[in-house]
Design a protein that fits this description.
- By secondary structure, the chain is an alpha/beta fold.
- The chain folds into two domains: 196 residues, 3-Layer(aba) Sandwich (Rossmann fold); 132 residues, NAD(P)-binding Rossmann-like Domain (Rossmann fold), CATH 3.40.50.
- Helices cover 40% and strands 14% of the residues.
- The chain contains 17 helices and 14 strands.
- The strands form two sheets. The protein has an eight-stranded mixed β-sheet, with helices on both faces. A six-stranded parallel β-sheet has the order 11-10-9-12-13-14.
- β13, α17 and β14 form a beta-alpha-beta unit.
- The longest helix has 31 residues.
- The radius of gyration is 24 Å and the shape is globular.
């Protein structure tokens, strides 16, 4: 059945979700407090990078199924998809959630459904959303229906996963869960798993905590491998042939709006019990400093003085433009603290908070003593070492993602270092 939907938050999750509903028979009004974002979308211009988004946005607006503004409107369904970041003290900042709930309350009417998609600490629906909605004078679960259905997509594959992934549907009562499942069946081919709201909140945080702990284990193993002449990437590949082992991969840190954030929700919830979770977070948060120190040690061992470093990649993962919680930013800061002259380059990032940043790859390589790959963009995998080497002061490359063709770079005369692998080629002559 065709519904009118008001979606609050038009970022990496809200905008793809909005155009999907618009493209599947619903009338959607998108809301964002950022006037620039609203103006971009209204003119069919993207403020985020996502495969397949442009054509879907064009279709949604051209068919008059999608409108945008900075304020909510009356609708059958309200979906909240705003950020839920952590504060400096590693506790959850739920003010965006609270503000969104407060903003829609004057527009909520009997029979409406309110869905929280943002990833949040358990009990956020009960303790933040519902108190605001009660200001409407309507009864929760009878007059208006409320649920939590956390997003489960990865940037770069949002539309594929919006359709194929199973969804967890946590209703404050069975009727809320049922209404939410029926709505998402507009385009979701995955299964709907209905539960209560608090369980759904915990499930999403658990999923990302599992991944964070697994990555922390891989990072610890990488550090150990670095000391015993073992290639950790090869060791992990072989270990994963075991039918009950699935080790993740190491790297310069953990980024993104979920894995680097969600475990802190559980630490905040019960710090005395969340010992492993807390240690994993500290381990992964420590990888940027480890990466910067590794770079400094390599340059010192090669006798390079006052080195310039070309840091490649500011997005938190390959082939996207998302810098949220990106460890690359921290790696650059840590390198600068170690008196390295760093120039950062990322072909996907146009605006960032890095002081020494360029959109010109040649400028990054010019006079550089070392290249440090921090993000596995396809553009970096395709670099031609012979061309890169022309303007460099020294031929050193440090690959923290194990993404380049090592033999190709070594044949071009580069000293190649890989995070978690002490088996490097002969020292530079």
């Amino acid at each position: 059945m065709k519904k009118s939907i008001c979606i609050i938050g038009l970022g990496y999750i809200g905008l793809p979700t909005a155009v999907m509903f618009s493209n599947h028979g619903h009338v959607v009004h998108g809301v964002d407090v950022n006037e620039s974002v609203v103006e971009h979308i209204r003119n069919k211009k993207l403020h985020i990078e996502e495969n397949g988004l442009q054509e879907r946005l064009d279709k949604a607006i051209d068919s008059n199924a999608f409108t945008v503004s900075t304020t909510p409107v009356k609708a059958d369904v309200f979906i909240i998809a705003v950020p839920s970041p952590i504060k400096a003290d590693k506790t959850a900042n739920l003010e965006y959630i609270r503000s969104a709930a407060k903003a829609i309350t004057p527009f909520v009417e009997e029979g409406n459904l309110v869905i929280l998609e943002s990833t949040v600490p358990p009990r956020t629906v009960q303790d933040v959303i519902i108190p605001e909605l009660l200001q409407s004078g309507l009864e929760i679960g009878t007059d208006i229906f409320v649920s939590h259905s956390p997003e489960r997509v990865i940037p770069g594959r949002a539309f594929e996963e919006l359709v194929s992934n199973d969804r967890i549907i946590g209703g404050v009562n069975p009727a809320s869960a049922r209404m939410t499942s029926e709505l998402y069946r507009s385009f979701v081919k995955g299964q709907m798993h209905e539960t209560d709201d608090i369980t759904a909140e915990l499930v999403k945080v658990m999923e990302n905590t599992y991944r964070d702990v697994n990555i922390a284990l891989a990072n610890e193993l990488a550090k150990i491998a670095q000391t015993i002449d073992v290639n950790i990437w090869e060791a992990i590949r072989l270990a994963n042939y075991h039918p009950r082992v699935e080790l993740h991969q190491p790297g310069p840190g953990v980024g993104g709006h979920c894995i680097a954030v969600d475990p802190w929700f559980l630490v905040e919830l019960n710090p005395e019990l969340a010992q492993i979770i807390h240690l994993a977070r500290r381990t992964n948060d420590g990888m940027p400093e480890y990466t910067a120190q590794l770079t400094a040690d390599i340059l010192k061992a090669q006798g390079v003085e006052q080195p310039k470093v070309a840091a490649l990649g500011l997005a938190f993962k390959g082939n996207i433009d998302d810098m949220r919680e990106s460890p690359s930013v921290d790696v650059v800061k840590q390198m600068e603290l170690k008196n390295l002259n760093v120039v950062a380059y990322d072909p996907h990032i146009k605006t960032n908070n890095i002081n020494e940043q360029t959109q010109d790859a040649e400028k990054a390589f010019d006079g550089a003593s070392a290249i440090v790959i921090l993000t596995s963009h396809d553009e970096f995998k395709a670099l031609e070492p012979e061309k890169v080497a022309v303007s460099m002061a020294h031929k050193i490359i440090i690959d923290t993602k194990n993404c380049i063709d090592r033999n190709k770079w070594e044949k071009a005369g580069f000293q190649v270092y890989v995070l978690g692998d002490s088996k490097n080629s002969k020292p530079l002559v």
